[in-house]
Design brief:
Blueprint (H helix, E strand, L loop, with lengths): L10 H11 L6 E5 L3 H16 L4 H4 E4 L6 H9 L8 E6 L10 H12 L5 E6 L12 H10 E5 L5 H14 L6 H11 L3 H14 L7 H7 L4 H13 L3 H13 L4 H23 L4 H8 L3 H11 L4 H20 L4 H15 L5
Parallel strand pairs: 1-4, 1-5, 2-3, 3-4
Length: about 350
């Protein structure tokens, strides 16, 4: 069977990058998504490209929830650039589809977005506020969507993150192997903002030129998803002591037992899906499509599933559901119930090593 290529499914992001490289920016963009590192990086690139220089204060206009005013925004868009070909207007975390907005302001917004001048680029930035346009406001939605290109900054695939990590380590005079890059991605959750912080910490921690796994473990606190993976992997190799140690570490970080049980249940369901797909000749790409996860997670789950028996995963899913019910109804200690669930799961897999 031919190997299928992964796709991040983010054509708007790719086309936006091409527009930026070609100096062919559109009149307006909507920036949103969970990868804040990229969002901020491209905001800075556009600002530098369009308005950097002695007249930047005149050509750059920034609005947020505190100073938002529709007429002031309209004036900023219409203002002729000073000693520059372009001006830049940013609107940060403002809900343009606020139902409390007056009809006068709404009509003014429709008018502005329907006739944005060529010399002005407007960016709607949704950093802490989600981008949720109310398409029932048909005329406003048509004006905004007609003028603005939506660009979602998604969590990046492993194929992009590995060379990025290696470049950043090299800038710190350090080297790191692709396998350790994958491990660092797992431990941090794979968001570039977190990775950038951890890269600096690791590079500062060691005085050796080559990064080791010990260096990563010494300074990086794993995200919950990473520890859940390590827990199920410990169950896979029948190491109950390690699984319990990882679980207690999460409890010490004040994660609620019911949340951890839900995460384990989700992991078991995804492993069961991977096992079933494998039986039918399907691969990680199909798991991505089925579970809505990224290529890195899909490959990792697919590999881990090969070490489980299908009936063990099925029983584990039922056990997690029973534990959830007991946590909500029995009045017992949820932490103890969670540990008992892990013990029974390890027994199903063949007991401790």
């Amino acid at each position: 069977m031919a190997k299928r290529k992964y796709s991040d499914g983010n054509e708007s992001y790719d086309s936006f990058k091409a527009e930026l490289r070609a100096n062919q920016l559109r009149p307006a963009y909507v920036f949103f998504g969970e990868e804040k590192y990229l969002l901020q990086n491209y905001r800075n690139q556009i600002r530098k490209k369009l308005v950097a220089g002695p007249a930047e204060d005149f050509n750059y206009h920034r609005f947020n929830d505190e100073n938002w005013d529709v007429e002031a925004f309209a004036d900023a868009v219409d203002a002729i650039p000073m000693m520059s070909e372009k001006s830049l207007v940013e609107i940060i975390d403002v809900n343009l589809f606020d139902s409390q907005m007056s009809e006068t302001d709404r009509q003014r917004l429709i008018s502005v977005f329907s006739s944005l001048p060529e010399y002005c680029t407007t960016i709607l930035v949704y950093d802490t506020l989600p981008w949720k346009p109310d398409k029932r406001m048909k005329k406003l939605w048509e004006a905004v969507s007609g003028a603005a290109k939506e660009v979602e900054f998604q969590r990046q695939p492993e194929s992009q993150l590995i060379p990025w990590i290696m470049r950043h380590m090299a800038a710190c005079q350090k080297s790191i192997s692709p396998d350790l890059c994958r491990y660092l991605i797992l431990q941090t959750g794979g968001l570039m903002t977190a990775l950038a912080v951890e890269i600096d910490k690791i590079a500062t921690y060691t005085d050796q030129p080559a990064i080791t796994r010990h260096d990563i473990d010494a300074v990086v606190i794993p995200v919950m998803e990473a520890e859940i993976y390590h827990i199920t992997d410990a169950v896979r190799v029948r190491d109950f002591d390690l699984a319990l140690q990882k679980m207690r570490s999460l409890l010490l970080q004040e994660f609620e037992p019911i949340v951890l049980n839900a995460a384990i249940g989700r992991q078991l369901r995804q492993l069961y899906a991977a096992k079933t797909l494998s039986e039918h000749g399907k691969g990680p790409y199909d798991l991505m499509q089925l579970c809505g996860i990224k290529d890195t997670a899909a490959q990792r789950l697919y590999n881990q599933a090969s070490g489980f028996k299908k009936d063990v995963l099925k029983q584990g899913i039922r056990l997690s559901a029973d534990t959830d019910y007991a946590m909500k109804t029995s009045g017992g200690d949820s932490g103890v119930l969670l540990e008992m669930m892990l013990l029974r799961l390890a027994e199903m897999s063949g007991g401790s090593r």
